[in-house]
Specification:
There is one protein chain. By secondary structure, this protein is α/β, with parallel strands linked by helices. Helices cover 31% and strands 16% of the residues. It has a 3-stranded parallel beta sheet, covered by helices on one side. Strands 4-5 form a two-stranded antiparallel sheet. Helix 1 runs parallel beside helix 5. The two termini are 22 Å apart.
Length: 186
Amino acid sequence: MVAIAIIGAGPRGISITERIAAYLKQAETHDPLTLHVIDAVEVGAGRVWDTSQTHTLCMNTLAGAVTLFTEPGATLNAPVLEGPTMYEWIQLLRGDGNSDSDGVSEPKHALFNAHLPAPLDQFAAEMRTTRPESNPSRALYGEYLRWVWEVARAQLLASVSIIEHHTQAVTMKKGPTTDLIELSDG
């Protein structure tokens, strides 16, 4: 069986998982694949975007400018998964992203509705005041990342299994037929 290890399950690990899903969906075969996702902290959010950190630490990117989804028209060799920017996600969470005039496209609405996030009551005050030009808290961005991680996982074929390793990768060695990754927990 083929296995791929993704070390670090923050934004890059999420993007890699989503692109693997897109490539596999267009492939002619559906051979079994195991994804080993290795992150010692919160899968999706990671250390930098830890959802439990103080809400006073903010991103240096605007809510309307950040997304982890591929954009329509992007030069890719696999289908694009159109999803909401962080601001559009917040609009949808607030319930004010549900009209034709809100700027949130139908595919983004449909993706959100297919993967409803858990309530984020601890961010209610922040989300109420967030605008496209706001700098959201790092913790709230971590929640967005965790949601995108769940969306990316859901895009994988049934022939793909994911094993999350909540530990650190410490070394990588060349084995006889494959690379071997040693984890801090053995």
